[in-house]
Amino acid sequence: MTAKRGRRSLVFLVRGAVGAAVLAYLFSQLQGGEVAAALRSLDAPLWIAAVALYLVGQAVCAWKWGLLAGALGMRRPYRSLLAYYCGGMFANLFLPTTVGGDIGRAAAIAPPDGSLGRGVISVLGDRGSGFIALLLLAGVGVLMEPGLPAWIRLGTLACAALALAGSIAALAAPDLFRRLGKPLHGAILVCRPPALWIPVAVVSLLFQVLAVGVHVLLGRALGLEIPLGTYVLASTLVAIVAMAPISINGLGTRDAAYVYFLGLAQVPQESGLAFALSWLALILVSGAIGGLVFSLLAPGQMTFFTRRAPAEGEEGR
Questions:
Q1: Which residue of 109, 187, 259, 313 has the fewest CB atoms within a 10 Å radius of its CB?
Q2: Which residue spans within the chain are E strands per DSSP?
Q3: Would you give the DSSP letter of residue 309?
């Protein structure tokens, strides 16, 4: 157990070092004060509006998660769903990946009439539907931007096509995915009825559209003139890059991706990095608000989001 904890700590430190190194490199490419000057031009009311729109999107996703949990027999009032979703947002601020917050959500929604397994399935359905919608919107984004490098265009369209084909196959023949594991297979079975997957799909796409709107507000807050297609790419492809387990919660890698994709629209590097930092600030503030909402709606239950994940062999204890 000690050796396993030591490896986890080492991985955490390495990821932190990678993120810090990427950020340091980005700053080294700029003249002193350029990023600060770009941030000083930030329109505060527009940035606040972006935070508000982001929180609206999270509230909508909490409702979608409730649909999936209800299908598994864990019907909860929206107040509780929103509290647990906000708790997950807050937990993700200080955990190396988003998995910690998701485990907390799964544990929080399970009692008294569910199990951690069913809670995990509900979270997988929530995450999976969102990721598929993300890929589909990314495919739309690359079609809106004709000047993209071929590898980005073809790779994104291929992933979007696979996501669409895989979704259709999963709904039509879920047993084909049994070998991927019981939790994933269970999530597919839950989402199969049209009365469930249609509203889940609509809300998933709606959230991604709202995320694009958040990016538009951030760009305008910084005075950037960017085509809508670039915002779609920044919202979707950067989110995918940030999921890579390279740094802590995408710190550094996400910033570099913003600089790159915004640079395709001739956005100066300092403005691209200012955009990335304004997004990071949005996530931090939103997570803090999520923690406040959670403490107000579900006081005394933060242990669901801070307890350690069970080690191998402990799940059944």
A1: 313
A2: none
A3: P
Beta strands in 148-211 (DSSP E): none
- 85 three-state secondary structure: helix
Q: What CA–CA distance (Å, rounded) separates 55 from 209?
A: 13
Please tell me the number of Cα atoms within 13 Å of 243 on its side-chain side: 12
Residue with tokens 């300092």: 270
Q: Is 104 inside a domain boundary?
A: yes
The phi and psi torsions of 278 (rounded to 5 degrees) equal: -70, -35
* Dist. CA 101–CA 85, nearest whole Å: 9
Q: How far apart are the first and last CA of the chain?
A: 17
Closest alpha carbon to 215 in 153, 253, 287, 265: 265
Q: Residue 276 belongs to what domain range? A: 36-305
Query: What is the DSSP-derived secondary structure letter of residue 112?
Result: T
Instruction: Confirm whether 131 is domain-assigned.
Output: yes
Going by pLDDT thresholds of 50, 70 and 90, the confidence category of residue 302 is low
pTM: 0.86
Residues 215-253 pLDDT 10s: 999 999 999 989 999 999 999 999 988 887 777 767 778
Name the token pair of 98: 């988003």
Torsion of CA 185, 186, 190, 193, to 10 degrees: 40
Distances in whole angstroms, Cα of residue 25 to Cα of each of 5, 113, 253: 30, 51, 11
Q: Which residues contact 44 (CB under 8 A, 6 or more apart)?
A: 221
Tokens coding 117: 């397994």
277: in domain: yes
